[in-house]
Design goal:
Elements: E1 4-13, E2 18-27, E3 30-36, E4 71-74, E5 79-82, E6 84-89, H1 102-111, E7 114-119, H2 130-143, E8 147-150, H3 166-172, E9 177-178, H4 187-196, E10 204-206, H5 211-214, E11 219-220, H6 223-228, E12 232-233, H7 236-252, E13 256-258, H8 264-275, E14 280-284, H9 286-290, H10 294-298, H11 314-326, E15 331-332, H12 341-344, H13 361-370, H14 377-392, E16 407-417, E17 436-446, E18 449-453
Parallel strand pairs: 1-4, 1-5, 6-7, 7-8, 9-10, 10-13, 11-12, 13-14, 14-15
Antiparallel strand pairs: 1-2, 2-3, 5-16, 16-17, 17-18
Helix pairs in contact: 2-3, 4-7, 7-8
Amino acid sequence: MASWLLRNGRVVDPSQGLDGPHDILIVNGRIAELRPVGARVSDAPGSKGRGPSGRERGAAKPERGAPAGAHVVDLAGRIVTPGLVDMHVHLREPGQEHKEIIETGTRAAAAGGFTSVACMPNTEPVNDNLSVTEYIISEARRRGAVNVFPIGAVSKGSAGEELAEIGDMVRAGAVAVSDDGRPVSSSHLMRMALEYTRLFDIPVINHCEDRSLSAGGVMNEGTASTLLGLKGIPAASESIMVARDLRLLELTSGRLHLAHLSTRASLDEVRRARAKGAKVTCEATPHHLVLTEEAVVESRYDSATKMNPPLRAEEDRLALLHALEDGTVDVIATDHAPHHSDEKLVEFDDAPFGIVGLETAVSLSVDRLVHAGHVRLSRLVELMSLNPARILKVNGGTLSEGATADITILAPDLKVRIDAAKLRSRSKNTPFDGWELRGGVAATIVGGRPLFVNPETGISF
């Protein structure tokens, strides 16, 4: 395996409190050295005391530069971060290969700066048993471009009636359980799931929706839905389920992660629960942070603006931004949901929910969150790398010496124009087609191998 010396990049790694110019040496797929630019090797982090490499205080670290034959890459003006981790994607395989396959989905992930993804279980058949989990892992190893971590189903067939074979799936490699777009409606079943998963120390991820309130809805309930003549999904359908899950968490002391929150009331519920000591985590998506229900109006019923939870009111979007700033939201996840064009090119009422997001998330986040002043870059790395890795307890989220060399390189001022036709995903359903943004992915390195290099950045590997 080739060795690489990444020079002069601005390393942003919240796991080590780093934000400044550093050189990184990659050998045999791992980070061999991390040192400030211009420092002697003996000044590198970890050479005094017990640093990320685990050396004892005062132990000498031999002087060495790049090994013979190492490739040197100048990253001046670029941002180097731990590999991004998307903990909420839909790879569709097995069973829905017309929408996406593991190969195309992971190539899209690499182009989007993600070195790891966790895939939801709404495949056909549902990932509710050992054999499907093993199949996903096998295909990811054979054809995947990035690390793939399966999420198993909470219930058999995601039908919400009987617990799935959670222990078998975890032993096979599942890192969490969720019934994804089919919320666990039964409080009894949700309690059982939270209690049982304590044995494996994995989170239960719930899509919070009271379907008795949202049934038949296709967009946010409000003035816009009334004007368009579309049945709405009330914000309360989400916050009511959030409140129930938090009460069950208090009862069970399990691990709960709330998927793609979209309303101010839901965020308030999370804050109240944390004030009581609840260990709950939650995520938001780039599209809920950037768009509102007005996108449905302005697009004239474009089904690319149809997702679940739906795009909400402006007050909810602002509440999400505030929740990023105050730490209420732990993760930005894409909810990458590819659909074939034939499925989306129908009337709004009949179209499936969901959009693709792996290849647009970074540019949207850098442009609309970092450059707009809502979050610092180090906070964005927490949201998109460190925190999801910690929640799922998977490798990643750090550039410490000895860690696997999963690295994302960003070009913060790169001019990006989103072109749906050029997306690497098998599906192209995005509301951001034609958007011009500032900031993008320069390169993605997985296990020490450059898997994506953006030719527009001038970087050469």
